[in-house]
Design goal:
Multidrug-efflux Transporter Regulator, Chain: A, Domain 2; mainly alpha; 312 residues
Length: 312
């Protein structure tokens, strides 16, 4: 068939794979107008109708509406312009669907109440500026007004989530959970206590900052005890407790004793809040960082050991 050949709707259906009904609909919309009519009044189409129908089917599969498709095939607007606008619209839709999926996934996992689901949905829909304000207010509650030392500037920066422009599903889910956690008044109070303890110890230390993080000291001394299976309440744990206390006493310039042990016990119990560890885990997911080291086992062991030696 040459370029002058005319096709019936049935011919176009066989060539394009579209139904006669669909082609008639596109013809009625003016998207694929007939070239001529047969003596009996049936619509006839030129070869360009095949190309138009192929383009129409592709654009429909991509989700474009019929008015836009008509403008494209009539060359009233360029295909690249339409593609760019549609891609941008799809990006917004994808982001919205990810947020909805994150909320529904969290609800399914946690068995949330309707009130909790409503809160999570609101948190998921926050803009970037709103997210920054929410987390900024949480961090200000925890660290605000304590000190202008660069240490705290660094701590605040290291605890700030930065959700990417095109986050993965798990990052969105992590953001929803972290945002909800940051609104927990008890968790906020615990974070503030931890910061106050740090400031108090640093002030007594008399240096620009604690020379050794007590939690890190616990980790280094307790790991061998865990490997050896030592009971924290047994006499075999005495050297471990003595080693940690000696370093803590040296840093603060205070003698080891019940008072200092109770002080360290209070600090470690605050640091060992599982919500704090969860916050750091979620933060790592959101920011694309490596998973943080967990000190829960070491802290649990040493807290038990210290309690056994400060009570009674």
């Amino acid at each position: 068939m040459d370029g002058d050949t005319l096709y019936s709707i049935g011919d176009l259906a066989r060539r394009t794979g579209l139904t006669v009904k669909a082609i008639r609909f596109y013809s009625d919309c003016g998207i694929v107008p007939p070239t001529d009519r047969s003596p009996a009044g049936y619509r006839l189409y030129g070869i360009e109708a095949v190309a138009r129908l192929d383009l129409v089917r592709t654009l429909r599969d991509l989700g474009l509406d019929l008015p836009t498709i008509r403008k494209v095939v009539d060359r009233e607007i360029s295909l690249p312009e339409v593609a760019a606008a549609h891609a941008e619209a799809l990006a917004v839709q994808i982001s919205t669907l990810r947020l909805r999926r994150a909320v529904l996934t969290a609800v399914a996992k946690r068995g949330s109440t309707p009130e909790e689901m409503d809160l999570m949905h609101k948190l998921a829909k926050l803009s970037e500026d709103e997210r920054r304000r929410l987390i900024g207010e949480f961090l200000d509650t925890a660290f605000g007004g304590l000190d202008a030392n660069p240490e705290f500037v660094g701590i605040v920066r290291s605890m700030t989530p930065e959700l990417p422009d095109s986050p993965e599903d798990e990052q969105v889910e992590a953001w929803v959970e972290l945002a909800e956690l940051s609104q927990d008044p008890d968790f906020r109070a615990g974070m503030r206590r931890m910061a106050d303890h740090y400031v108090a110890d640093r002030a007594q230390d008399g240096t620009a900052g604690l020379r050794r993080d007590p939690a890190a000291t616990v980790r280094d001394n307790v790991d061998p005890a865990l490997v050896a299976g030592i009971d924290p309440a047994s006499p075999q744990a005495d050297p471990v407790v003595a080693a940690v206390m000696a370093q803590y006493a040296h840093v603060l310039g205070s003698p080891d004793g019940v008072g200092l042990r109770r002080r360290l016990l209070t600090r470690l119990e605050t640091v060992n809040d599982p919500r704090r560890e969860r916050y750091l885990q979620l933060l790592a997911v959101i920011n694309g960082w490596s998973a943080p080291e967990s000190l829960a086992r070491e802290l649990d062991w040493f807290i038990q050991a210290l309690r056994a030696r400060t009570t009674g």
